[in-house]
Design brief:
The complex is a heterodimer of chains A (about 100) and B (about 600). Chain A has about 100 residues and is mainly α. In chain A, about 70% of the residues lie in helices and about 0% in strands. With about 600 residues, chain B is an alpha+beta fold. In chain B, strands 1, 2, 3, 4, 10 and 11 form a 6-stranded mixed sheet that branches. Chain B has a 5-stranded mixed sheet with strand order 17-12-13-14-18. In chain B, strands 20-19-22-23 form a 4-stranded antiparallel sheet, with no helix packed on it. In chain B, helix 2 crosses helix 3, helix 4 packs across helix 9 and helix 7 packs parallel to helix 8. In chain B, about 45% of the residues are buried. Classes of the chains: A mainly alpha (about 100), B alpha+beta (about 600). Chains A and B meet through helix 2 and helix 3 of A and strand 18, strand 19, strand 20 and strand 21 of B.
Chain lengths: ~100, ~600
């Protein structure tokens, strides 16, 4: 978080108005069309500070990479459970029919 | 070197510039700031752009095209004679006309421009706009969003932050942007819109309504030919405009159809309330878009300081009324809805061209960008899930990365399919391209990690890079043209040469049919009247026919006379007389 503040030339504990003023000053210095990389860094820092400012819980909602992993063990369990349920219901069905 | 700002609109276009710190729209030789976005060819094959083309629209719809912007980024073809034109080729003609207008007004060559597009335009539509500029011979320094340009032109000059809703309802597109303005910094918080909603849709609804009324009046359908429908559409558009300032307006179109040998005309009074009933559902959609933009900007309606209306369609009283009721405040007066986009484009052009303009623009990407991924659910692996890497309304330029892992044991390859859109199902979004990362080492599922990096620049060019974390294998895809192929330099040269040829040919128009042998230019409206008069002659009684023939003779003489003098007031008067005559002749005939 400190580095974000440093990026905008701020010290931690800056007020919302100070943060915005520092951000605008940096925009003046590094317009997006001439300094795209610097602009991205400034914007990134500004967004991070504002996120930290509003609530710590927001990270909880942040999009994370998808864990595209298959747990074979639990899959097997689910499968067994499903088959067991099917068998039971078959028995019930036979009982009910006769 | 001066850079111009261009508003390439669905209905109208303008070109503007900053000079000595002052921003102004450059008028054409006729003194008109607005160039209708209409292109056509005269009956002798001469290219017409603007007012002239619009004038012949109702008489020659097969040689005239309006609202080409609605087709930008598609391969829709416009046929003129034996040649077909793509939307960006037609748009290039409009841009060339604007470039010429600017060069005449400024007395110097213009080769660079900033062009505006609707905020909600997709990549393909933006790329087509850029290509159009290049064909016209303009280097497009930046494509900026129309509502953003309007906000830029709206000079607040206050250090206090103001939050502004820009509601832009034009001829063919609708945008809403939530903007924060602090001093010279204009920052877009969120944009939403609809690329196929605008005044054109209102015209079409009214056109269908008028056709219904005609059927009720006369018990027959209107002819379905292009010329009749074009006249009806023109009448509908005029009616819509009239109803913005009057509670009732009358449509008069003579000789619109016929029943046997009897010519039929349309004369009917329409109430503003009727129009409002027709367009209300479409306007409700725009209110929903406002709500979504506010939600994305994390703002409540009460937090909005100001509402700015942009685009000709915002002149409709119901539009203003519905926005006011919905947001609880009246829109700001004193904005020029037709010119402010061009003025804003000129300001940004001034910034890029080194003029002393204090304007800093921070804009957002309107659509999410991401890839198709498989996710594991209790039901098994679900493919085709849209994983957004750059969410909509992110500030541009922007770079973002996500890490993905393999789903199968010994998976050999990964397909990176890039999409643009908001649907959770990837394939329901707009595909932008794809590439494969191959020869992955044989490892268990989930152990190979692939980082996908998206880089989106100010020109709307997306570069996708994927890196396999272990071995560092890379794949790269540059998406800067979705469905429209970016022209190769050879194709571009050819397209530009074709356009040059069209603008250079200055043939004299020959009038065919009539016994007028001289090379004289007849206004399309008059040509249409003469045509109708010829049709009407046999249906009139002897006395009226004689009167009409007399009038036609006088007009013929006047046309010959006007071949020397450029403008003939006599001819204008005779034209009005003929129009009246035909109107009343048809009225009597029908009774």
């Amino acid at each position: 978080m400190t580095s974000h503040y440093e990026q905008l030339g701020l010290s931690p504990g800056a007020t919302t108005a100070q943060i915005k003023a520092a951000y605008h000053a940096k925009l003046r210095e590094f317009p997006a069309h001439t300094y795209p990389e610097e602009f991205k860094a400034i914007r990134g820092a500004y967004e991070a500070i504002r996120r930290g400012e509003t609530t710590q819980h927001e990270d909880f909602l942040k999009f994370r990479p998808l864990e595209a992993e298959l747990n074979l063990e639990s899959l097997k369990q689910v499968q067994e459970k499903a088959i067991a349920q099917l068998e039971v219901s078959l028995e019930d069905l036979i009982r009910a029919t006769f | 070197m001066k850079v111009v700002g261009i508003d390439l609109g669905t209905t109208n276009s303008e070109v503007a510039i900053v000079e000595n710190g002052q921003v102004r729209v450059l008028p054409g030789e006729d003194g008109d700031s607005i160039l209708p976005s209409c292109v056509g060819f005269s009956d002798t094959g001469k290219l017409l752009v603007g007012r002239e083309a619009l004038r012949q629209y109702a008489a020659a719809p097969e040689r005239t095209v309006k609202s080409i912007k609605r087709w930008m980024g598609t391969d829709h073809k416009t046929t003129f004679g034996d040649k077909e034109y793509l939307p960006h080729e037609v748009a290039a003609m409009i841009l060339r006309a604007l470039q010429q207008r600017a060069e005449k007004a400024l007395g110097e060559t213009i080769t660079q421009a900033v062009i505006t597009v609707p905020a909600y335009f997709t990549d393909a539509q933006r790329q087509a706009t850029k290509t159009a500029g290049e064909i016209a011979g303009l280097e497009v320094l930046q494509i900026i969003n129309e509502p953003t340009a309007a906000a830029l032109a709206y000079d607040l000059r206050s250090e206090e932050t103001e939050r502004v809703v820009v509601y832009d309802l034009g001829g063919g597109t609708f945008d809403v942007s939530v903007v924060e303005i602090t001093g010279e910094v204009t920052e877009v918080l969120a944009s939403h819109g609809n690329n196929r909603l605008g005044g054109d849709d209102f015209d079409r609804l009214l056109q269908l309504h008028l056709a219904d009324l005609f059927r009720q009046q006369h018990g027959v359908d209107l002819p379905d030919d292009a010329a009749t429908q074009a006249r009806l559409l023109r009448a509908a558009e005029q009616l819509k405009i009239d109803l913005s300032s009057h509670a009732f307006a009358t449509v008069r179109e003579a000789f619109l159809g016929s029943k046997g040998k009897t010519p039929l005309h349309l004369e009917i009074e329409v109430a503003r309330a009727d129009l409002e009933k027709l367009i209300h559902p479409l306007l409700v959609e725009t209110l929903e878009a406002i709500d979504r933009a506010l939600t994305d900007a994390n703002l409540e309606p009460e937090e909005i300081d100001r509402i700015i209306l942009v685009g000709g369609s915002t002149r409709i009283p119901l539009v203003q009324q519905m926005i006011q009721e919905h947001l609880g405040q009246a829109p700001t007066d004193g904005i020029q809805p037709d010119l402010c986009v061009a003025l804003g484009a000129a300001l940004q052009a001034g910034v890029l061209g080194g003029e002393s303009v204090d304007a800093i623009l921070v804009d957002v990407i309107p659509h999410s960008l991401g890839i198709a991924a498989a996710i594991t659910t209790p039901m098994g692996i679900m493919p085709d899930y849209f994983s957004a890497i750059i969410p909509r309304n992110s500030v541009v330029p922007v770079s973002r990365s996500h890490v993905y892992s393999t789903v199968f044991d010994e998976q050999e390859a990964v397909e990176i399919e890039v999409f643009q859109g908001e649907n959770a199902i990837a394939s329901e979004n707009v595909p932008l391209g794809s590439f494969r990362v191959e020869n992955l080492p044989p490892k268990p599922a989930g152990t190979i990690q692939i980082e996908v990096h998206f880089d989106f620049d100010l020109n709307g060019i997306l570069t996708v890079t994927s890196t396999e974390k272990g071995k560092g294998q890379q794949g790269t895809l540059v998406v800067n043209h979705a469905s429209i192929q970016k022209l190769s330099s050879h194709d571009l040269k050819q397209a530009r040469a074709d356009l040059d040829a069209l603008f250079e040919s200055d043939e004299i128009i020959e009038i065919s049919g009539e016994e007028l042998g001289d090379a004289v230019e007849i206004a399309p409206e008059l040509a249409e009247l003469l045509n109708r008069a010829r049709q009407a002659l046999p249906t009139l009684d002897a006395e009226a026919a004689e009167e009409l023939q007399d009038l036609l003779d006088q007009i013929e003489k006047a046309i010959r006379a006007s071949a020397n003098a450029n403008q003939s007031t006599e001819l204008t008067e005779l034209q009005a007389e003929l129009s009246d005559f035909l109107y009343y002749a048809s009225t009597n005939e029908a009774e």
